[in-house]
Design brief:
Domain F5/8 type C: 353-499, 560-711
Strand content: 25-35%
Pfam family, one: Fn3_assoc
Protein name: alpha-L-fucosidase
Strand order of the largest sheet: 5-4-3-2-1-10-9-6
Largest sheet: 8 strands, parallel
Radius of gyration: 28 Å
Organism: Wocania arenilitoris
Oligomer: single chain
CATH superfamily of the largest domain: Glycosidases
Family: Belongs to the glycosyl hydrolase 29 family.
CATH topology of the largest domain: TIM Barrel
Number of helices: 10
CATH class of the largest domain: Alpha Beta
Structural class: alpha+beta
Bound molecules: beta-L-fucopyranose
Length: 711
């Protein structure tokens, strides 16, 4: 036998000793499912961008029809991927996911799989490649690149076809090839995004040809995933239908996830949509939630939404309800017709980035003394100090038998604070089921009640990160208590901040009478407004109660102003069409029908329980009006009663009706916002909105509001 050298023997002994010490250190064992390295890397990105850009941008649609929208329409005048990447970088984002192909089927790269791509557009004489340009820009700004490829393709003629032998030519030869092209030509891809193949129907060739697919089997996801994993082993997969992917949708596009948010789901099968919001406590697979929302109401650019960009308070709220609740924040920019992130969007997102920096600038816990009620094996390695050492791999933990434990953060002197940030070391699983937070104020402990969830059961889950907002207090200590946990707590980080107050703009509505009502979001601030399109300031008219109007169209702008700090909110702006004073819903005797035309988006009229689709609402406008469009807002709460396909008729005698418009409300199920439809000028006194099909395939139809657009 070969003799070991002195050096090798010594090394072996050292390794043995280290291992023995490690074993003695008795680290907590992982509990339940744990994240993969890919999922951890992704979660640590926290904030990244979505970019929606396609033929839709030029047709003013949310869902394009494919071949009905000529590739020739795609012609940005000043496309600049560098600008997209710069804005995202300055906003503090870590990556960009691009709609390389949306439902229309139009590809932003010169694919070999179809002619419906940039290749056949006038942009750069068909020689351009937006995925390639963005990949370069991302590299330049140190951002990661992600790809959205819609499984649903409204352009490809083979979409939805399944051969006699069970194979699907679209999936095998087109869809997978498109994925392959995107995953092999543009460097590392951090995330691939498959929306829920929403409509799931194949519309192609301009004609409405509906091919029903079996969403569970049609895409053969297991083999598609296998291909992705072999081409890009570091890429995470997002999918809200079909086979369980690496990441999950949180069940809404309005920008929040539940306060209770388990990064767990079941390995097999779908969970009810409602549960996507909370995850599943006893789930057997690690599937964390990603909060996707747009900076504007729509995902694609519509000029009419230039004044509807989410403002600083709204973006802040979304931050706390996504990253602050164990999710990531995927914020969409609709690229405009020039091919740029619009200046209004840039302004708001950069103001938000600045506010985030200010909020999280000074961590009050950093120099505080941390005292734990229990430390695992009394071993320093698991000591309380680890939660403020800035090292994400060290943590505080307790003995296995301990199921409730607390940490006191002692600031020595009273400090002003309103945010508490806490993180579990998720490599060891998500363990904590609930916790409480108390503050030591004027000699006694006080529950910070305003962040407790229903039932007063504590603040529920933590996961990768949880941020608790509470009213500003002056406290000398905070006490964080784990009240219920699956296994001993493992806390890697705690931070405490005093976030500057942000004034929220007021909410404006127009009553049926035509009066304008402005509601501030808090009792303290004053409201100032203008009706002449100028920007309101504290020297504008002060709001003292309902503003009477002459019933004509009106644009109102308002701010909230706090006299003590001399600060004002950003501007709330509403454009109202003519007042609905003389309107009557005439095809019913139900007095609740007025809810559909009362100007209040929080009241909804439902009809249709005993009738079959189609279902009409008929409104007498009181006199002949010059119509160029209409608007529909579905219920903003439950039940939805949302309809997806409509016809719109006008009449002057309530007998002879003319069909002036028909079509679909794209994406209304996931994003139940105002739907605006424009048509050629029509003079009419009566309008009829016909619901043809709703999202639940029953006959319930709800109207939070219907409205007209006049010339
Ligand atoms: C949904 C799509 O239908 C929308 O158009 C948008 O792309 C959104 C992010 O996903 O499923």
């Amino acid at each position: 036998m070969k003799k070991l050298s002195m050096k090798t023997t010594l090394l072996a002994i050292i390794i043995l000793v280290i291992n023995a010490c490690k074993a003695q250190e008795n680290a907590p064992t992982p509990y339940g499912p744990v994240p993969t390295e890919n999922q951890i890397r992704w979660q640590e990105m926290e904030f990244y961008a979505f970019i929606h850009f396609s033929t839709n941008t030029f047709t003013n649609q949310e869902w394009g029809y494919g071949a009905a929208d000529d590739a020739q329409l795609f012609n940005p005048s000043n496309l600049d991927c560098d600008q997209w990447a710069r804005v995202c970088k300055e906003a503090g984002m870590k990556g960009i996911i691009l709609t390389a192909k949306h439902h229309s089927g139009f590809c932003l790269w010169p694919t070999e799989t179809t002619d419906y791509s940039v290749k056949n557009s006038p942009w750069m004489d068909g020689k351009g490649d937006i995925v390639g340009d963005l990949a370069k820009a991302c590299k330049k700004y140190g951002l990661k690149l992600g790809i959205y490829i819609s499984p649903w393709d409204r352009n490809h003629s083979s979409y939805g076809i399944v051969d006699a032998n069970g194979s699907s030519p679209y999936v095998e030869n087109i869809f997978r090839k498109q994925i392959e092209e995107c995953l092999t030509k543009y460097g590392e891809i951090f995330e691939i995004w498959f929306d829920g193949a929403n409509g799931g129907d194949g519309y192609y060739g301009g004609a409405k040809t509906v091919r029903r697919i079996d969403r569970k089997t049609y895409y053969d996801w297991p083999n598609t995933y296998k291909m992705i994993r072999s081409l890009q082993p570091n890429c995470v997969i997002w999918n809200d239908k079909g086979d369980r992917a690496d990441l999950r949708w949180v069940g809404t596009e309005s920008g929040y996830v539940g306060e209770t948010n388990w990064s767990l789901l079941y390995k097999t099968g779908d969970v009810p949509k409602k549960m996507l919001r909370y995850g599943v406590e006893d789930g057997d697979a690690w599937v964390p939630g990603e909060v996707n929302t747009s900076i504007r109401p729509g995902w694609f650019y519509h000029e009419s939404e230039d004044s509807r960009v989410k403002n600083l308070p709204k973006l802040m709220e979304t931050y706390y309800k996504s990253i602050g609740r164990n999710g990531t924040f995927l914020l969409n920019f609709p690229i405009d017709k020039r091919g740029l992130i619009h200046e209004n969007d840039e302004k708001e997102v950069l103001a938000f980035a600045k506010a985030i920096k200010e909020t999280f600038a000074t961590d009050l816990a950093k120099n505080a003394k941390i005292i734990a009620s229990n430390v695992r094996d009394n071993n320093k390695k698991f000591g309380a100090i680890n939660v403020t050492d800035g090292n994400k791999d060290t943590y505080w933990s307790t003995d296995d038998s301990v199921k409730t434990a607390s940490l006191i953060i002692d600031f020595d002197k009273p400090k002003t604070m309103n945010r508490f940030l806490v993180q579990e070391n998720i490599r060891l699983g998500q363990r904590i089921k609930s916790f409480t937070l108390e503050a030591f104020v004027n000699g006694e402990w006080k529950q910070l009640k305003d962040q407790l969830v229903a039932n007063g059961n504590g603040t529920t889950t933590i996961g990768y990160k949880r941020i608790i907002s509470f009213s500003t207090i002056h406290a000398s200590k905070l006490r964080f208590t784990v009240t219920e946990t699956k296994a001993c707590p493992v806390i890697s980080n705690i931070e405490v901040y005093n976030a500057p107050q942000i004034l929220v703009p007021p909410v404006i509505m127009r009553e049926k009478s035509g009066n304008l009502i402005i509601t501030p979001s808090d009792k303290e601030s004053e409201i100032y407004y203008t009706l002449d399109e100028t920007m309101p300031t504290p020297t504008s008219k002060k709001y003292l109660g309902p503003i009477a109007t002459d019933g004509k169209k009106v644009t109102i702008k308002a701010i909230a102003y706090e006299a003590s700090s001399k600060k004002n909110s950003s501007v709330a702006e509403e454009k109202f069409d003519i007042a609905k004073k003389n309107w009557v819903v005439i095809n019913t005797t139900d007095p609740k029908a007025t809810d559909a035309i009362d100007g209040n988006v929080n009241t909804t009229w439902y009809q249709g329980n005993n009738s079959k689709m189609p279902i009409d609402i008929v409104v007498d406008l009181g006199k002949i009006e010059e119509l160029i469009g209409f608007r529909y807002l579905p219920s903003q709460s439950y039940p939805p009663g949302i309809f997806t396909h409509y016809q719109f008729y006008t009449s002057n005698d309530n007998k002879n009706w003319e069909l002036v418009d028909e079509g679909e409300f794209s994406n209304i199920k996931n994003n139940p916002l105002w739907q605006t439809k424009i048509f050629p000028l029509e003079s009419a006194r009566y309008i009829k909105l016909r619901a043809e099909k709703n999202t639940l395939s029953n006959d319930s139809v709800g109207y939070a509001e219907i409205d007209i657009i006049t010339k």
